[in-house]
Here is the input.
Amino acid sequence: MYIHPHWDQYRQVAPGGFMIILGIYITIVAFIGTIGNMIVLWIFTTTPSLKTPSNMLVINLATCDLMFSAIIGFPMMALACFKKYWIWGFVGCQWYAFVAGVSGLVSINTLTAISIDRYMVIAKPLYMMQAASKSRSLQQIIFVWCYAIGWVLPPWFGWGAFMPEGFGFSCTWDYLTRTTNNISFNMCFVTFQFILPVSLVLICYVGIVNAVAQNRKEMGRMSKDTANQTKQEIQIAKVVAVNVLFFIVTWLPYVTVAMLGVAGHSHLVTPYTTEIPVMLAKASGAWNPIIYALSHPRYRDAL
Here is the structure.
């Protein structure tokens, strides 16, 4: 299995205690993410008041987070940490990177779709009363998965590559090779799968803030039921905003390290500066169930 020559200068094995700590950490995160997202799926699929077209996107988010936690966290990465080397071989490395990539991209793009949905519900409620449907949400979900898979497949066909990183406990895109082919893939990938989704989310929430300010002026003229519904939709929008914020916080350090490698500052990319952001990113799938339990009004009632 090919390992980038950059990592040769760090051939010393990480301290055993450090690897055990990483293994325990990723096991705990994977356990929380797996159980938490299973609970989210159960509640959102069995509670009548939560069986709405919009919540199909929440179910999709929990599905990809469950896939991320149950497959990537444990057993693959945790066992590699405990064994102190990548035990899954070349094929395992390729599939690890593929599954991690798809689940991560589906997550950020689903959060983007939910943010757009929240904007439409709050800013254009009359339109959404007519447009919202399960078939529309299903089309969004299919698009999100196809869009994610479309950006993870290129390394298997020669644009970019998958390989181990850091101490070799995980596999990801090659962000160190300084070729036009590799640099172009990484720049396009970060642009269309991180910068663009985050920008769309920010635009949506600027629109939501403006719509909320307008709604507050009109709240007194609304019926009690309509006003309560509007307040609840605003609260759900806040929950989504927290989900997005935590996603950005957990993934931004890793994206920063990868971009340092792409930009040629590989001297700043060490196993430690890589593994710590990796571990933070792996926690992204465990946050959403906790946020729902603490903040989502209908979810708390059902729980």
User: Anything to note?
Assistant: The mean pLDDT is 91. The chain has ten helices and two strands. The chain has one domain: 5-302. The longest strand covers residues 162-165.
